[in-house]
Amino acid sequence: MRTQYGTRLAEALESCRPVPPDKPNILKTLLAVQAGLGYVPTSDLPQIAQVLGVTDAQVAGVLSYYSDLRTQPSSRHLIRVCRGESCTANHGLRVLLAIQDHVCVAVGGSTQAERFTVEQMSCAGNCAVSPTVIVDDEMYGRVVPSQVAALLERYE
Amino acid sequence: MVRLYLANDTSSRAAGAGRLADAWSERPEIQLIRTSSRGAFFLEPMVERDMLNGREAWFNVSPNDLPRIVAGVGGTPVAEIPFLQQQTRFTFANFGITEPLAIDEYQTGGGLKGLAAAQGLSPEAIVEELRLSRLRGRGGAAFPVWKKWQVAQQARAEQKYVVANADEGDAGTYCDRMIMEGDPFRLIEGMLICARAIGATRGFIYCRYEYPAAAQTMRFAIQKAREADLLDCDDDPFDLEVVVGAGSYVCGEETALLESLEGRRGVVLAKPPYPAESGLYGKPTVVSNVLTFATIPNILANGGAWHASLGTEGSCGTMALQLGGRVKQPGLVEVPFGLTLRDVLDRFGGGMIPGSRFKAVQVGGPLGSLFPESQLDMPICYDAFAKAGAILGHGGIVVYDDQTDMVELARHFMAFTADESCGKCTPCRVGSVRGREILERIQRGQGTAEDLILLADLGETMKATSLCALGGRAPYPVLTAMEHFPDEFRNKLSAFSRQQ
Ligand SMILES: Cc1cc2nc3c(=O)[nH]c(=O)nc-3n(C[C@H](O)[C@H](O)[C@H](O)COP(=O)(O)O)c2cc1C
Ligand code: SF4
Ligand code: FES
Fold first, then answer.
1. Which residues pair with B327 in a beta bridge?
2. What is the pLDDT, as a whole number, of residue A111?
3. pLDDT tens digits, A42-80
4. Where are the domains of chain B?
5. What's the fold here for domain B103-308?
6. Looking at the complex, does the CB of residue B265 fall below 8 Å from at least one CB of chain A?
7. What is the pLDDT, as a whole number, of residue A21?
8. Interface contact B447, partner A, CB < 8 A
9. What ipTM score was computed for the predicted complex, to two decimals?
10. A28–B170 C-beta distance less than 8 A
């Protein structure tokens, strides 16, 4: 397990190692690490900083600034509910409440057995087919609370 | 075998297009062509086929509608769909018709004519054409495009950059996403014209994290454009790359965007210097919105005067309005500037969703003002909006119904600003948190009349002293909510305060 993890981290870092005259790009590197590992482990900050030739603090600063960079692994399935205005107008909040009720976890939390993590997201660009729920890579539009149970059943 | 057309855009899939494609994948009697979406999202998933008199469409299709469609029964001619028929489509002319990644179809639909015209012009003449066109940026600030290009053109530097702002952070907007997913070569063509005009050999498309399909389509399109030898600037190779952000609203602001592009925290910088003088890595950089770039090919192909002849005096051309919220017919509406808000909501929006009543409409995203019924005769153009202290922004229009709690909505906006503030200046960083706290106090029934005065005061301070439009415009939805729905705020004050 650890070796696979180590390889993925090394690969991500290698792909972002700055080649002069290009300057190191911290955000791009962190996104690559997240793409490889699913999150950015804070314990790996020194290694990331070293490869890029920047300070730990600079990396930590970027990591904390962007809301889509995560420092914890999410559960097997990530549910994101849009909190944008079109979804809000179309009762997206009711959908969020129905999801929270159904999986018994609040926003930001993960369910027991790590099946679901629930998060809110900014506008998904699906406003004309709102309210919007995204589970992993699949987007659902015009979601109503009564569909929630059937929708989540597909994700084991 | 019958050829059927089905959109493959994110919203069409969210509406169920993917389900149809899956259900029909093994049907030998049809060939499914995946196109872009026309933007009539209330009809999606919509299936089209060629008939004797052009395309016909079937609306809100479910998998077992297939026999009907194959038999050619019950379709509506696309040319007779009022939502589409009443629009003036230039930038979005090919939507629903072409396959997004087919360069030959892009060209058949008039694509690459603008680039060819630009290649016959000097850089100065391209900028002159844009000046004549009177095109203003579509990302929010509505700055004349030619001025920015001229500054970058006249700057002396060994490296210049073209950057497409694909951060599309305003909730309620999705036209940039549609362009990137549905007509990606139009964005590339616009950027190539800009590269030629200013002498840039590198370009970036800064795409928000929430748009994975758009980023992927753009990467494929760039690859295809490279293979077709399109990516050059005056015989030098033009290097174009998609860069993905990481969920920060303020990274849509151009200086913050460039910081983020360099990999740092996306914090706003004071201007001047403007990016056109000193932008990415300190080099002259044109940052324009995706829709702005996508508007440019037609301007070069048809001439600046053509563009200036559309719309109103100060707002030339067409605007891509994006309807959302409680309207019956949400979707993309491309029309010349000048229609009133009421026109747009009635003729295109089709009125309210049955059972709900109009309360207010917000134009221009989370920093845009709220308009009550009495202000719907406002013409949609930059000048009228500026005069009313409002913004058109990126063209997002969200309609709220009578179930909307205005105090909660105001709190939502202040909380949004507090979450998204880059922290550079105090009025925004601290003001938004205080604003949210006041509104929460009012929601708990502990607010006083002074709190309302304080909130209004705070709003004025943020407007006057914030460094960028996030802090400077954030008070507008809150203050317009208080202005038009004062009773809702007053009724939530503490009982003691209300008696006074
Ligand atoms: C808080 C904030 C957010 C912004 N977000 C965006 C955005 O998502 N997309 C965009 O094109 N412009 C956005 N802008 C405007 C940009 O700063 C800039 O004016 C624009 O990209 C220039 O392109 P244009 O001239 O084509 O409009 C934002 C501005 C501010 C202050
Ligand atoms: S107004 Fe807000 S977002 Fe803009 S620079 Fe100031 S703190 Fe940053
Ligand atoms: S507001 Fe939810 S998708 Fe745009």
1. B352
2. 80
3. 999 999 999 999 999 999 999 999 999 999 998 999 999
4. 2-85, 103-308, 318-401, 406-499
5. Rossmann fold (3.40.50)
6. yes
7. 82
8. no
9. 0.95
10. no
